[in-house]
Amino acid sequence: MLPQHLKQIRVLMLNDKENLERSLFRLEQGFELQFRLGPSLQGRSVHVYTNYPIGGQRFERNKFHVLEWNYPTGREDDSDKFCSLDLKTAGSYQYYFGYGDKEQSGGGYIVVDPVLRVGAENQILPLDCITIQTYLSKCLGHLNDWTDRLRVAHESGYTMIHLTPLQTLGESRSCYSLADQLTFSTEFSPEGQRYTWSDVGALVEKFRREWNMLCITDVVYNHTAANSVWIREHPECGYNLVNSPHLRPAWVLDRAIFHITTRVAEGRYKAKGLPADITNESQVNAIRSVLWEDVYPQIKLWEFFQVKVSSAVEKFRILLQNGTKPDHSKTGGKKGLKIIQDPQYRRYGNTVDMDSALETFVPHSSSPQHIEECCNWLTQKLNQLNGEQNHIIQQHQEQAANCIVGNVVYERLADHGPKLGPVCRKNPLVTRYFTFPYQDMTLEQELQLLDQPDKTCHFLAHNGWVMADDPLRNFAEPGSNVYLRRELVCWGDSVKLRYGNGPEDCPYLWAHMQKYTEITAKYFHGVRLDNCHSTPLHVAEYMLDVARTVSPNLYVVAELFTGSEELDNIFVTRLGITSLIREAMSAGDSHEEGRLVYRYGGEPVGAFVQPSLRPLTPSIAHAMFLDVTHDNECPIQLRSALDSLPSSAMVSMACCATGSTRGYDELVPHQISVVKEERFYPKWNPSASPSSIGEVGFKSGIIAGKVALNKLHQELAAQGFMQVYVDQVDADIVAVTRHCPSTHQSVVAVCRTAFWNPKTHQYDANVPPMFIPGKIEEVVLEARTVERHAGSYKKDDSYINGMPEYTVEIKEHIPLEESAVVKRAEVTSKGRSEFVQEITFQKLTPGSVIAFRISLDPTAQKMVGLLRFYLSQFSPKYRRGSVADEHPPEALQKPLAQLMSKVTLADLNFLLFRCDSEEQEDGGGCYNIPGWETLKYAGLQGLISVFADIRPNNDLGHPVCANLRQGDWLIEFVSNRVMKREGPLAQVGQWLAAMFNFLKHIPRYLIPSYFDAILVSTYTTALDATDKLMSSFVQNGSSFVRHLALGSVQMCGVGHLPALPPLSVKLEDVPYRISPITGQKEQCCVSLAAGLPHFSSGIFRCWGRDTFIALRGLMLLTGRHTEARNIILAFAGTLRHGLIPNLLGEGRCARFNCRDAVWWWLQCIQDYATHVPKGHKILSCPVTRMYPTDDCEPRKPGEVEQPLYEIVQEALQRHLEGISFRERNAGPKIDMHMRDEGFSVVAKVDPATGFVTGGNRFNCGTWMDKMGESERARNKGMPATPRDGAAVEIVGLSKSAVRWVVELHAKGLFPYDGAKVHRDGKELFISYSQWNQQLQQSFEAGFWVSGEPMDPNEKHPDLVHKKGIYKDSYGASSPWCDYQLRPNFTIAMVVAPELFTVEKAWKALEVAENKLLGPLGMKTLDPDDMVYCGIYDNALDNDNYNVAKGFNYHQGPEWLWPVGYFLRAKLYFAKKLGKETYSKTLTLVKNVLSRHYTHLEKSPWKGLPELTNENGQYCPFSCETQAWSLATVLEVLFDL
After folding, report:
1. How many CA atoms lie within 13 A of 1221 on its CB side?
2. Please, which residues have CB within 8 angstroms of residue 1046's CB and are 6 or more apart in sequence?
3. Is residue 916 annotated as part of the catalytic site, yes or no?
4. C-alpha distance across the termini of the chain, in Å
């Protein structure tokens, strides 16, 4: 079992309705695959099913089981929940998932690669180390000669041999036309001896153990040789005229064409211009006239598709005479004549559906005259339909003529065709499409056989391929006209096999092929699926399952010609194909060939280090990249002999499996035909002479070069040179770099291709110089194809011989000075870390290759080693290539985790976050990437967010990467900023500076990846330190909880100036610092920013309302109790007029213009007392008063001090007394937009109801505080949402506060049980319990909107717009405002649930859900309201009163923080309504929260916004991350 940080884990996110069956997911054995829920599925009861076998059971494709869910953290949300598979078995596996009554709402496949082993020690052969060579088995001779012939592959450095099928071949002798799939061909046994499969198996095992070579062979499932004995005994295994009668017309045409062949061969069409020897176009065109004049009229194919009119009409007439009525259940009462195709395809076998005829042709009466009239109509219609069928057949015949002519042109006239010569029986006009196992007879006699099933069952369709056909369609099945239209490129030696849908459809064939598969899998290490794209998928799937039962680590390769990667993936995923064959010969020039090298493997040089746990991403199929395949044309014919070596070198440099076909390395100048070749391959003799025919050795062809290239290919793969760079130097020269990301060694191969023969093509004599970064250690190899005098090529009769006139000049492992290819190499330095060597070539002739081994210059090499050494404290993956530091600098002597354990959360705010305006206070700013954008934060998160997008895609072209390569500015910005701080944070800065110092001495192309590695290590260590400083709720919470808790670090910081007024010096645990401005000691408490970036600095950072709405979530739940206490007490010191300021302005510039902040403050004191151990002690904490009286100037700290409970009492007493004042400095100085009346602040308790009421229509004292600003629209100075009267959330908050002080008093923790007030000139005492009861009694009577016409509590039935809701306010100056549906009542539900009747509360919550709930936030106004507008645009100034200058800020846009209260209310009341309601609510809550989690993860700000426009659309005027948005969502998770 691997340690957790090394184990490779891939995460597949499941999304509703997402089918990934066309995506390829490749995994290795030993990987863990985790399934996690995407946002669309979170909260639902999802089941994941897979057919991956559990606990060593046998794999059964159709046997699925459910995976268990793991909950690594609590169950409060689904962000971390996963189910997993430990992958230990190779193959293709399916998964699907569903929820509720949907069994399947998505799914896909995964492919697990096999592990291949070689040698006596069973060492692993990595897939990228494979180099394969193909052999046509029939050219190997007797089995006892195979070792000498196959030794060529071993000595040439190949690690795998591919043998074409070893079974008995059909009479065509094609390697892929097998007469018997089960027998080892007798041709491999000498006379008097009989070798068997076990002898082959012994030889294969010997190669594996002694040569470290594996062997694979083909499986051919599509067809069998036409002369297979078993197909005669079991004709049902093919497509014949009995089981596939739709082929009868095509058979008739096929026989007719065969008879033309005999006539043409006998010269009977000479007079028509069609001789036996066809040599020109006019003779070809004569074929058309023969077809149209002689053949088509004779065979009358249309008759197979027509109705016999007279008999159909006669039948119809009898039905009419008998008064038969149509069966409406069949016709559905619809008119329209239906013709039924005869399933047996007899001439005129089609029939009329009489019900449709009776429905369509209805006589006016039963008189003979009317019946006759109807029959005439039917006759007309049937003649018309027969005509249409005739037209379709004419089109088929037209296509058939085109295909026949095209075939003749290719086979007899085309330069690149086989030029078959005169038409004769051996070389017919075109290949026959069907077998005909009988004596010759005339066409007329043959056509009579159609009625004899015992004969027609032996007319079997041949196989072949169809140009541009859909590979998922079987062209021999009904519905396809390929055989009739002659579109099949036919293999006349093979019969297409008919499997049906499963073994029950053709038992013999399935059993036969299963045995064949078992034999192959038993004796070979892998299979090549021949003709894979036209093998029925379900057949190949079944057979490979059988094969993997025999050999679990079966290596499966295939060549696919589907024409699209997406279609390729269907085959790769369903069949579990390990490698797809790709061919360098498909490239038309060196540029395209280079692109293929880059495409088929590896990552870019300088790629980022990826985490071990990461998302599973779709990939392309693993490539087996061959210079040429055995069934394609010879490169020497298409290019030149000189190109064999450089193109091979390019292939060898590819980071995938590679290979070739036997004959390529020996420069055989023609294709070795899989059908016609019968000569033997030469044997191996190391000292064979160049002109030797029956033997080859190191001097033959390019073998010597291939040995070196194969060795290099394996070494690069085995040693982890997984990064690839391809450079097109000029039109013919390609340089391929393979780089090892841990040792930073590179091998660069410079290949000069020769696509055109140098004898006829003029190559440029000037080869451009090359600039190679780093130090050239050696020339690994240099090789040139050169001419020699060893005679010229003459094709031998017995052996497959190559061209003796070329050989390879090769030197290996030489110093640069000894190179014959390089003229000189000069070292140029590019900056302090860039060693660049300029290479000038002298003999890089077409057909040559040179490969350099390059390392970094010694200083850079050492620096990288040290850097990796220090990075290995974070992950063992950096150990390789690391060098221990003998003299560690002081800054690096302690591990980072130790340094980080000393920092505070306030320090972490500086290290991780701080937006531009926060930094500017300190005289800095966030880093700007020229030509791109400014980072969101100056702290690490700013970069981490950017690299989160760059890293997975290795986007090294990104402007940030370019900036890092160009200079050290960003590196120095990160470390210098932290180093300037004091204490432990400065030590973290020094650690960063010391680490970055190494970066400055390594090549610039490596800097982005190592910078990222340092960054990620520092960031994750900082997150660990953050967790340790937080509450157990956070430490044991889900990823979502921890992400949200990070919002506490993001929002809570200490600025350049203290944002909070001073606390009493008698308090303990108050942090101090030396002021950067005065040099004096000062308090430095953290303050809570309202939102970033707009409310983060200066006087706009701290707001009473925002602070206390966010405080419980961001500070109390995260365990920041002391800091929370300090904030509560600091604000307490600013109480004035019985109110807490809205805008704090350090207390001195405070504005007391909001009615709700004091109640949120009181709620937080209550939350502190209940949440924090011994929290009630806060009530006795001393508060230093800034405004002990309403009208005094700010007092000095410590001048007037009172315990907190006195201030609480003062706030309550002043409300009972009634608050009324005019703001100081009223006018444009403090508010440019407000009208004069708005500066009058009123707040009081209504004696009739107990409700806290106040405000007027010219001010806005609650959180919905938008003041009109547009003169043009005439809304300036008018609040959009005054919410005067009693706002519902204030009533709820006041009820909560009063209830709490009653409880406190009862416990002896609060000295007051009420307050004295003056009313009508008298002093009265109002008890808190009396106030508490009054609120309880008045609330639903005043706020519930029943919508009942006779409701005695309803004062304005005419204003009711929505019923079953709670009013937004009570007693507003504009009464209709009370009745607007807004989300504020949910706040009251959470803080004072006792005010609500459960059933009514639930009803109102359902209305809110249906009308107000958006993807992320709550609509701030009912969308049915006439002034609703969901799009907030603060810059728009027009004539529209309702929207100009963002007037609709709270009139529709979806704010996030109310969602927290809505969900908490929903959970609270759902619990009261029973289990079923609660479980449904849980689903809703988790589903809503999942969208927040997704946003949070993707947000570069790592936060939740203030608001969105309607339906969750992005709003550019919103804060990107808002304290109360994060806090209230965190509170929901706490409740869960």
Report:
1. 18
2. 912, 1023, 1026, 1502
3. no
4. 35
3-state secondary structure of 983: helix
* Total residue count of the chain as it appears in this document: 1536
Q: How far apart are CA 397 and CA 487, in angstroms?
A: 11
Catalytic: 1433?
no
CB atoms within 10 A of CB 431: 18
50 close to 95: Cβ distance less than 8 angstroms: yes
* Positive/negative CA dihedral, 245, 247, 253, 259: negative
Query: Phi then psi for 1514, rounded to 5 degrees?
Result: -60, 140
Distance CA 283, CA 1257 (A): 100
Q: How many CB atoms lie within 10 A of CB 971?
A: 21
Q: How far apart are CA 991 and CA 985, in angstroms?
A: 10
Q: What DSSP element (H or E) covers 1253?
A: strand 1252-1254
Q: Which of 530, 627, 665, 1265 is catalytic?
A: 530
Averages of pLDDT over runs of 10 residues in the chain (1536 residues) are 65 94 95 94 92 91 95 79 95 95 91 97 96 97 97 98 97 95 96 96 97 97 95 96 96 95 91 90 90 94 94 91 85 83 94 89 88 92 94 96 94 88 91 94 94 94 90 90 95 95 97 98 97 92 97 95 86 96 89 92 92 93 94 85 93 96 95 94 94 93 96 96 94 94 95 88 86 91 91 93 94 94 75 76 92 92 94 93 92 95 96 96 93 96 96 95 95 96 94 96 94 97 97 93 96 91 95 88 94 91 96 98 98 97 87 96 98 97 96 93 98 97 92 93 97 96 96 96 97 98 97 94 95 98 93 92 96 96 98 98 98 98 97 95 96 98 98 95 92 94 97 96 97 93
- The SS3 of residue 1338 is helix
How far is the CA of 561 from the CAs of 465, 468, 597, 767, in angstroms? Answer: 11, 9, 19, 38
- As to burial, measured by CB atoms within 10 angstroms (0-12 exposed, 13-18 middle, 19+ buried), residue 1072 is exposed
Alpha-carbon distance 770 to 836, whole Å?
A: 10
State which H helix or E strand residue 474 sits in: none
* Cβ neighbours of residue 1232 closer than 8 Å, sequence gap 6 or more: none
Q: Where are the beta strands (DSSP E) in 577-656?
A: 579-583, 603-604, 613-615, 622-626
Cβ burial, residue 177 (10 Å; 0-12/13-18/19+): buried
Q: In this structure, are residues 760 and 742 in contact, taking their beta carbons and an 8 Å threshold?
A: no
CA distance linking residue 475 with residue 141, whole number of Å: 37
Active site residue 631: yes
Alpha helix segments (H runs only) across 457-589: 507-523, 537-550, 565-575
Exactly one of 180, 568, 631, 1284 is catalytic; name it.
631
Of these residues, 246, 533, 630, 739, which one is catalytic? 533
Max Cα-Cα span within the chain: 135
Query: 226-230: long-range contacts (C-beta < 8 A, 24 or more apart)?
Result: 226/170, 226/171, 226/177, 226/435, 226/460, 226/462, 226/492, 226/493, 226/494, 226/495, 227/170, 227/171, 227/179, 228/170, 228/178, 228/179, 228/180, 228/495, 229/179, 229/180, 230/180, 230/508, 230/512
Q: Is the Cβ–Cβ distance between 654 and 601 less than 8 Å?
A: yes
pTM of the model: 0.89
For 325, 353, 372, 378, 619, the CA distances from 321, given in Å and listed in that order, are 11, 18, 10, 15, 70
Helix (H) or strand (E) holding 651: helix 644-652
Three-state DSSP state, 140: coil
Three-state DSSP at 1286 gives: strand
Structure tokens at 765: 């004599």
Token pair for residue 447?
């056509």
User: Cα separation of 208 and 479, whole Å?
Assistant: 48
